[in-house]
Design goal:
The structure is a single chain. This protein has about 625 residues and is of the alpha/beta class. Among the domains are: about 95-235, Rossmann fold (3-Layer(aba) Sandwich), CATH 3.40.50; about 505-635, ANL, C-terminal domain (GMP Synthetase, Chain A, domain 3). Helix 1 (about 10-20) packs across helix 2 and helix 7 crosses helix 8. The radius of gyration is 24 Å and the shape is globular. The structure holds 5'-O-[(S)-butoxy(hydroxy)phosphoryl]adenosine.
């Protein structure tokens, strides 16, 4: 088991050690895992290429570190508790032994379908236990999983499957979220019409609802599981072999396949999980994220299971059947650590205190947030009403690309400050840069947040596009990893994340590229171009504001229909989560002489802020007035 920091001086000591001798620091932690063969060099890196390799030539399998390593001591301990959407439906609980048996069986199913080490497996599942089993089964046989969030459209699914050239898809008949039924199989069928690399589609029966069946490709999960045994050897993996791909949005239109490898990701997720949440043996841990995003990968599945924890996986939503749902789950299982997003907290605040007033939640020890900046009001509500003034909040800053938590309090050890992610974890060396690329030393500074030394959890590349990987993070400040976020370091050396500096918007903790949304809007036959910006949104953190230029600009009253059809188009191309909150029609967009759209001005208008700066350098300054006028009607 990885070492656990237990005092502030212990933290300071580890932090100092990790900077003085990073390879020695991480090697010590890596040695607590089971390696079939030890690595040659701890680290080989060059951010200019960029290349990062941790524990290369070390041989291991991450599932042996989850199962075989723990089974003798705690095979009968609960590994996974699955809480269904509807509280009246029975839950499912798997011990480590039981989960292991399922994973080995499904590993054999994949092998029977000719899936081998290095093959890509696309997983398009709702929050059901089979999702966890499928991911771990891939890891067992060395196949690379690519989980696609179940809220994505057929078009988005197909794009991700084809980019990775996945051989097999795993989906479900339907998914359940609150009162909604999500027709996953139907969406998958539509996507599979143009996915030539997919040979079979394994379907989990979740609801038993009516679906179409394709005898050539479709097979039932339960039918396949009956055909195999639960004897399955783990594939030997190199530390640097890919473990998974996870697609995320960037500043260009196409989603990028972030690649994480095996050894470094294992060491990093386990270490950060144990330390940030101060997990102790026997604790019950509940992360309410979706496994379709990195938070679920690292902190529902890999981190907790590597540390032998009991992890809760929740199928539903915070408001079904009523807004006490999270609090009921916390009481039902006596949850000790609870991890959610600021958006979820804000949406529950908006529904009123009566839903939380009489909840006890005595078991809670630690609260966490992730995904977006948390405002002070939400922080205090979380602290007072959920934590009943007893529980430290860990505001964890990290990204899909970082693999695990980077800047965060260590619960109960690093003193917190509302809305601050506080201090870097041991092994993390953040720096703040000014626009000219100078490192800003000392405290009370603000600029671009970069990291100056690799850590084991950093992504290694973009699937099939190393050049784009380089451009996205290593070209703005040569020699550094640029996070895309702005940050300030205050007078105490504490970090506060200020939000994205690139064309990425963070809507309810979901990351969306403005270019991706614009591409979807531009597909509409009446649209000639568009510009999308984020604006402050009370619940979602950021909302989506689209400026749309049409061939036939709608007259004052008849824009509604066009708005609806544009919105529908975005849902279909990407996902309902990418739907614009506001659409403003305009005759043109403000541009610089070089033809670049001036998003800075558009963002200010969308947020209702004045002070547009110097607009005389625009080719069409007069359009700004028109847009300001139009915006007044939208608010
Ligand atoms: C972006 C990464 C990390 C898992 C979920 C999101 C923002 C994340 C915080 C935080 C302020 C945060 C950043 C970051 N972000 N956590 N605690 N405080 N902002 O992963 O989709 O890769 O998005 O989310 O802007 O760059 P992601």
């Amino acid at each position: 088991m990885v070492p656990k920091i237990s005092t502030l001086s212990g933290y300071l000591h580890e932090q100092q050690k990790s900077i003085a001798n990073p390879t020695g620091f991480w090697a010590n932690i890596a040695e607590t895992f089971f390696w079939r063969k030890k690595w040659k060099d701890v680290l080989d890196w060059d951010f200019n290429i960029p290349k990062v390799e941790w524990f290369k030539n070390g041989k291991l399998n991450i599932t042996e570190n989850i199962f075989e390593r723990h089974i003798f001591i705690q095979g009968e301990q609960k590994a996974l508790i699955w809480e269904p959407n509807d509280p009246d439906e029975p839950n499912i609980e798997y011990t480590y032994n039981e989960l292991f048996s399922k994973v080995k069986r499904f590993a054999n199913v994949l092998r029977r379908h000719s899936i081998k080490k290095g093959d890509r497996v696309a997983i398009y599942l709702p929050m059901v236990p089979e999702l966890a089993i499928a991911m771990l089964s891939c890891a067992r046989i060395g196949a690379i999983h690519s989980v696609i969030f179940a809220g994505f459209s057929a078009n988005a699914l197909q794009e991700r499957i084809n980019d990775a050239k996945a051989k097999i898809l795993i989906t479900a008949d339907q998914g359940l979220r609150g009162k909604k039924v999500i027709n996953l199989k139907e969406t998958a069928d539509e996507a599979l019409r143009s996915c030539p690399t997919i040979n079979s589609n394994i379907v989990v029966r979740r609801t038993g609802g009516t679906i179409n069946w394709n005898n050539e490709k479709d097979v039932w999960w339960h039918g396949e599981m009956d055909k195999v045994t639960d004897e399955s050897k783990a594939e030997t993996m190199d530390s640097e072999d890919p473990l998974f791909i996870l697609y995320t949005s960037g500043s260009t239109g196409k989603p990028k396949g972030v690649v994480h490898t095996t050894g470094g990701y294992m060491v990093y997720t386990a270490y950060t999980f144990k330390n940030v949440f101060q997990y102790s043996n026997g604790d019950i841990y509940f992360c309410a994220a979706d496994i379709g995003w990195i938070t679920g990968h690292s902190y529902i599945i890999y981190g907790p299971l590597l540390e032998g924890a009991t992890t809760i996986m929740f199928e539903g939503t915070p408001t079904f059947p009523n807004p006490s749902r999270y609090w009921d789950i916390i009481n039902k299982y006596q949850v000790n650590q609870f991890y959610t997003s600021p958006t979820a907290i804000r949406s529950l605040i908006a529904l009123g205190e009566e839903w939380i007033e009489n909840t006890e939640m005595k078991s809670l020890k630690v609260l966490g947030t992730v995904g977006e900046p948390i405002n002070e009001e939400a922080w205090h509500w979380y602290h007072d009403h959920v934590g009943k003034n007893r529980c430290p909040i860990v505001d964890t800053w990290w990204q899909t690309e970082t693999g695990g938590i980077m800047i965060s309090p260590i619960a109960g050890i690093i003193p917190t400050k509302p809305a601050f992610a506080t201090l870097p974890l041991p092994g993390i060396q953040p720096v703040i840069m000014d626009e000219a690329g100078n490192k800003l030393c000392g405290n009370s500074v603000e600029g671009s947040l970069c990291i100056q030394f690799p850590w084991p959890g950093i992504a290694r590349t973009h699937w099939n596009d190393h050049q784009r990987f380089k451009e996205s993070y290593f070209s703005q400040f040569p020699g550094y990893y640029f996070t895309g976020d702005g940050a300030k370091r205050d007078e105490d050396g504490y970090y506060r994340i200020l939000g994205r500096m690139d064309d990425v918007i963070n809507v309810a903790g979901h990351r969306l590229g403005t270019a991706e949304i614009e591409n979807a809007i531009n597909e509409h036959p009446l649209v000639s171009e568009s510009a999308v910006v984020g604006f402050q949104h009370k619940i979602k953190g950021q909302g989506i504001y689209a400026y749309v230029v049409c061939n036939d600009l709608p007259k004052k009253d008849d824009g509604e229909e066009l708005r609806n059809s544009i919105t529908k188009g975005v849902s279909k191309m990407i996902s309902p989560i990418a739907k614009p909150d506001k659409i403003q029609f305009t005759h043109s967009l403000p541009r610089t002489r070089s033809g670049k759209i001036m998003r800075r001005i558009l963002k200010k208008i969308a947020e209702g802020k004045g002070d547009y700066g110097d607009i005389s350098t625009l080719t069409n300054p007069e359009i700004v007035e028109e847009i300001i006028e139009g915006n007044k009607k939208i608010q």
